[in-house]
UniProtKB/TrEMBL annotation:
Record-linked InterPro entries: Amidohydro-rel, Metal-dep_hydrolase_composite, Metal_Hydrolase, MTA/SAH_deaminase
Alphabetical UniProt keywords: Hydrolase, Signal
Official protein name in the record: Cytosine/adenosine deaminase-related metal-dependent hydrolase
Keyword Transferase: no
Record has ATP-binding as a keyword: no
Domain Amidohydrolase-related residues, every copy: 80-422
Signal peptide: 1-21
Recorded superkingdom: Bacteria
Source organism of this protein record: Luteimonas terrae
Family: Belongs to the metallo-dependent hydrolases superfamily. ATZ/TRZ family.
Length: 455
């Protein structure tokens, strides 16, 4: 009898992931003690020396000298305690394409579209799992993942399993089998997956939507609107790119009255004031991804250009395209572009960038009632950023926002908690077999290149 061959990368990942891809479990009560707490709540503000008490996955109290009771105490003396960062837009399935986007010798869109069709469900599971862990390692506790490579139900389930297993909070925007609009999204499978997600689910479903490339194609519009109507009937959020052709796509959304509070747009780098006004009037949201927008040549991402839009946040747009899943680098580039384009050092507001990376990003994903600030009642998604590295040394006091935006990096993130679960302590991810995960990723990447290469 012959048995089917199991790819080596899948075997390695199975050994490294939690049993049956189970999500991390509750670790009990936690008390983050004596940190400089940046609640990011406008009414509460900063608490220079305070505690955060967590029970049953929620923040139950924030303030000085809280009684720990039976809680595990995490010492944050001399460190900064913030809400976890919110990555409002990503493509985690491309994580194992890292290093293949070589500018003139491997442009992003051409390379990604040549590799994506050869991905198996196991390749997706590996890429999205390690991609999510990389985000967590850098203090990103929530991601909006635009999964536009759902080639089969098995691919879609693999992506969902990967995010569940990593422990990250997410909206998984379920898309079609490629970036074109030739094929419909499997809305029946999307509906089935959405039915498995309750109101308290850490990973929720959404629709990764695309407009017809031929805006006069009535048949394609009918297919796209069926997808949109299905998402609305299910109460799912929708994300759509307005990047390759900023004017026509944005204008098509306006002309057909498709802008709405449940819709977030991505990359509107060249949006006009009139277009942004229409989005604001509709209550829609925007995701800006400065690193990728610069890399693929969309033009400088001017944060001040979007000042009139209330619901907006920052995104990574895929760890491979951005180089790494690093919100600190994203904020820093946004700050430098802001001052450089304005030719005014004083134009930048570091606190505003922290807001985009936390509270406002959560609002943009429709998760503002759940995460994004450190106040009683929110789910416990937070990070502790140490100040004991050389790159953080020399700070004499005052508002730490500029220190965090310009000087901090993922290596300074010592503790990460998502939904009350301790995922990173003492600067290391917990219960993660990094050597096996790295080997699984390398093997999957090698196999993917081999399968995608012309015969």
């Amino acid at each position: 009898m012959r048995f089917p061959t199991i790819p080596l990368a899948a075997t390695l990942l199975a050994l490294a992931m939690p049993a049956a891809a189970a999500p991390p479990s509750e670790t009990g009560a936690l008390l983050v003690r004596n940190g400089h707490v940046l609640t990011m709540d406008p009414e509460v503000g900063d608490l220079p020396r305070a505690d955060v008490l967590v029970r049953d996955g929620r923040i139950v109290a924030v303030g000085p000298d809280l009684e720990p009771g039976d809680a595990r105490v995490i010492d944050a003396e001399g460190a900064y305690v913030l809400p976890g960062f919110v990555d409002t837009h990503s493509h985690l399935y491309t994580t194992t394409m890292r290093g293949q986007f070589r500018n003139a010798d491997g442009a992003y869109f051409d390379t990604a579209e040549s590799l994506a069709p050869s991905m198996t469900p196991d390749d997706v599971r590996i890429a999205m799992h390690i991609g999510a862990l990389e985000l967590l390692d850098g203090g990103i506790t929530t991601t909006g993942d635009f999964f536009d490579n759902v080639r089969s139900p098995a691919h879609g389930e693999a992506g969902l399993q990967a995010l569940d297993a990593a422990g990250i909070r997410a909206v998984l925007y379920y898309g079609g089998p490629d970036k074109s609009t030739r094929y419909p999204i499997d809305v029946e499978h999307l509906s089935a997956l959405a039915a498995t997600r309750g109101e308290e689910a850490r990973v929720r479903m959404g629709l990764a939507w695309r407009l017809p490339r031929d805006r006069d194609d009535a048949t394609n519009w009918a297919m796209r609107m069926h997808e949109r109507d299905t998402a609305r009937a299910l109460g799912l959020p929708v994300q759509v790119h307005v990047s390759v052709e900023p004017g026509p796509i944005f204008d098509a959304l306006i002309a057909r009255d498709l802008l709405a509070p449940d819709l977030s747009l991505v990359h509107a780098t060249d949006a006009t004031p009139a277009q942004l006004q229409a989005l604001e009037a509709a209550g829609g949201a925007l995701s800006l991804t400065p690193i990728s927008e610069h890399r693929v040549g969309y033009g400088p991402t001017r944060i001040d250009h979007f000042a009139a839009l209330r619901r907006q946040g920052l995104g990574i747009d895929g760890n491979a395209l951005a180089g790494r899943g690093d919100m600190f680098a994203t904020m820093r580039l946004a700050a430098l572009t802001w001052s450089g384009e304005a030719r005014d050092e004083t134009a930048v507001d570091p606190r505003a960038l922290l807001e985009l990376a936390t509270r406002r990003g959560a609002d943009a994903l429709g998760l503002g009632a759940i995460t994004g600030t450190l106040v009683a009642g929110k789910r416990a998604d937070l990070q502790v950023i140490a100040a004991d590295s050389l790159q953080m040394a020399g700070f004499g006091g005052g508002d730490p926002a500029a220190l965090l935006v310009y000087s901090a990096s993922p290596s300074d993130v010592r503790t990460v908690i998502v939904d009350g679960v301790l995922l990173k302590t003492d600067g290391a991810l917990r219960d993660v077999d990094l050597p096996r995960l790295r080997e699984a990723a390398q093997q999957s990447a090698r196999d993917l290149l081999q399968r995608a290469s012309p015969r």
